[in-house]
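For concreteness, we quote verbatim a single protein encoded this way:
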Amino acid sequence: MIMGSNVALADLSDSVGSVIVSLGWVSPTGEGDADVSVLLLDANGKVRSDSDFYFYNHPVAADGSVQLLGKTPTADGSEDRISFDLTAVPSGIDRIVVAASRYGEARFGELEDVRITLADAAGESLLRFAVDDVGSVTAVIFGELYRRGEGWKFRAVGQGYESGLAGLATDFGVDIEDDAATEAETEAALDGTEADEQADAAPAIPAEEPAPQAALEAIPAPRRPEGEAVEPRKSAARPRTAKKKVTLPKTVKKTLAENDSWRPARLFPVSVLKSDRDREMRATSVLLSVMAQVPEFSRRLTAGFGAPAGRMETFTEVSLPHGDSPRRPDGVIRVERAGKLWTALVETKTNGNALKADQVQAYMDIAARRGYEAVITLTNDVALEGSPLVDVKIDKRRKHKVALWHLSWAEVAYQAQMLIRHEGVGNATHAWLLQELLHYLQHENSGCHGFQNMGPAWVPVRNGIDDETLCQGDARALEVVENWERLIRQVCLRLGGELGQKVLPVQRAKRGTDPNERRNHLADQLCLDGQLQAELRIDGTPGVLIVSADLRTGKLRTGIDIPAPEQGYPLSWAKRLVRHLAEAPADLHIETLVDSEAGGPRGTLERLRPEPADLLPKDNGTKITGFRLSLLKSMGSGRGNAETGFIRSVDDAVQRFYTTVVVHLDTPTTRRTPSKERAAAG
């Protein structure tokens, strides 16, 4: 699409009751980021109340019409996805504005390939709009969905603001500055629980200084006719933040058991599981039953698949006719909304068992004949972009389209962790159910441990690197690279679930590079230097976390590059860094990064503690650009997830580096600060 053009969604697909809108960009440095936001506007071009504004502190609509799904890595950047259930949008809403903003001094001109795409409920991409000429703006309206008769249309907008998220929201009627002032005054006047309750009554929207609009004028809101009285805005009910919801306590209550041999009773026992079939049936039943009872959790898992928000029922071992003999999918998910049904067949595998192509194909055929919307596969494996876990044939002559989606057990556990440990759920019963589900998934006997095998090519590739017989183009090297990418994605999920923050793999590639082409290049590099490398971006950290596995030496290196401060003196930088790392491991390596080819000083933290000045170059004219921190450890040799396995060693190395090193570092100045910190600072 081009700027200003529009199209009716019904002309593009028959499955547009639910759509997924993706806002994407490429960061040349791998560190650039943006945040999406959505505004629901009435016929006057204004929000009805502040609760019609959805952003990072208010991501989900109570009626299910809007849900911010979060960022996912792509071959050459990141995409932030939003699920819209257009059938649930209130009748008073005339149009939906989809925007994104950058924070601090960042500008969209620092990003490349800024774009918006829209997919239907079957996951098929319907349109794409590239947003150009956004160099100086900090917020961009990508596009808007608006009503026309009984249907919806999409307009490509691509217009921007220099005043950021706060300026954009204010122009559409969101009360930003008043909220910030009231919040600060309230928290300064009150303390304890009373302050928490009143301060958390509204989402924390970052107030920014207003700035002149950019050359790209934002969409003007309709003006009122002259002479028409302007009614004062009424303060509407504000959406509660996650602090008002139920989360697990940080400290475990003292047990009433007489000794450690007493085991608490569990809702989902695992002791009776004997075979893979038992594990698959139990895992499916446990997951689907919790989904049916905890709507916050089920929406997290199904919104991205195009499922509407509505009454959900789940079933197991359903018999469906197929040729001479019926088929029995492991489960069925059915959602009812406004008299319409959305149905998905579920096929699960545990203990590393692989999906069977003929089985999934049969379910796709059954779903197409019966008018079902999706088939969902659920295994320990992690799906990669451009590399499906199982190939199926889709009859394009059929008008009804069926979407094939995949979930890993690690993703399920991640969503449960985020809800019960960080964001909260509606009541204590929901929290308890999710806690029992998480305990079941993490138990060694459940078979739901996530990706846990580097594959049969792992040992031959390691041997080929040792004896220098591994040649470029070897398919086994490509298999190892793909499994390394799966492992890194799972590490991101586990660490993100523990921290309650977004952790995403950084994938540096030329714009438009095909994922398979990128992996082939990495496989050739593995054959040449014997190394696997990955980068992780963690919200609130001063740099990108680097993970490197050297298959020649059997060493794992975890590290981070932090930029030099903009103010102060080099000696004070070195002293401050060593002081902050007082509790870090003594074997932490610190290297000074300089702007010369010779390289800067380096040493272990143990040696540098008494003499931080040893980090300074001998030549006073050498400019210090930053510091590199890294830890080394031996990596596991086995391909599996055993105590001595490679997968376990990578997971442990990342966890150790973050918890013993990264947490002690200064947070970047561009990090958004929580509302209470802002109020206290003001």
Observations:
- The longest strand covers residues 151-161.
